[in-house]
Amino acid sequence: MITTPAGHRGILIGTVHVGVQGLRQPSAAIFDGAKRHIVEQVPSEGPMPEPRPVWPPALAKLTKTQRLGEAPWAAQVSPQERAELRRRIACRTGYLDNQVDWELATSLAMESPLSAAETAIRPCAPPGIPSRDELLSRYARDRNVPTYSLEVNAEVEKRRRSVEDRIHLHQLHVGLSERQPEAMATITRTLNTGDFDEVTSVLSSLAANQEDAAIYERKMLADRNEAWVPRLLKYLEDGDAVISVGVAHLSGPNGLPALLRRAGMRVEPVVLPQALP
């Protein structure tokens, strides 16, 4: 719970962007009296980023052979990893086989491994289990609570592309390894217990080294949190906001709770009403 000096209140809740087994979900009652739902991005909200570039020789091969070539980094993706990437594309998109094959080929032809890494770090959800993002958005829609964003797509895309390719490639390997389910189980536990600082340790342990962990934390978490705070303060001062962001944004000295406290907000842990199983 966040309380402004004027006494206005808002709820800040951590999410994980895929459906996971064992995550305790809040009930729709958290939107009782809410005026707005605040999320990281609204997909349709612009300006939209420029398309991610394909490696030019890969396109040249398509012109000559009707088969898309691969970027140099794709040589480091094993057959087992390709098979799992394909499976995740299929479960995420629901595409037919030929469309899934084209999507996989396109991701391996990109100049950067960013797109493939994004697929790798999001496992397929168990059947019938929505992500917390989906659940909260449904609650807001059902109660006619409008949704606003903390950043537009072009902003976060610029940050994603500023992360070095070696970090994206490492995330791809880790996301497709046995380390991912272990990390997801830990993150689920932190969401269930509220011990968000453990997330920082998990993310750091998954990085190739501490330097890369620090780069990613600064570019994709700390800098974004800093940019969000002025917008968050406005929404909080208006009162009755439900704010949902990825759980990694809530941990450590650069997390949103710490930044909001420094901005004069009172931040207190609360137990939210739980949805029925």
TrEMBL record:
Q: Which domain of life is it from?
A: Bacteria
Listed InterPro entries: TraB/PrgY/GumN_fam
Check the record and name the CDD domains matching this protein: Tiki
> Can you name this protein?
TraB/GumN family protein
Lineage, top ranks: Bacteria, Pseudomonadati, Pseudomonadota, Betaproteobacteria, Burkholderiales
